[in-house]
Specification:
Blueprint lengths: L2 H22 L9 H10 L1 H24 L16
Length: about 80
């Protein structure tokens, strides 16, 4: 595990916690963002809350995977870019 993986994974987890708080929190500011405002107008506030929670869980799962060093089979952390 490299420090870059740990940094990016931690950042994704922090963003996931923020999105989870936006989904379950009592304030209206997160729902004034353009996409969330459109979802709220079209489908209602429960759908917008659900979308925040889905984004939160996706970010939390991605952050945990990145922090754990999970990589696709074609990616290798030891590859060095070749000079051209």
């Amino acid at each position: 595990m490299s420090y870059q993986d740990l940094f990016v994974g931690t950042l994704a987890i922090v963003i996931g916690i923020g999105a989870l708080l936006a989904g379950v929190g009592p304030w209206a500011a997160p729902y004034q963002l353009r996409t969330m405002a459109a979802v709220t107008r079209r489908y209602g506030k429960p759908a917008a809350r659900s979308l925040w929670i889905v984004v939160a869980f996706a970010s939390l799962i991605a952050g945990a995977a990145i922090s754990a060093g999970v990589r696709p089979s074609y990616a290798s952390p030891t590859q060095q870019p070749t000079a051209r």
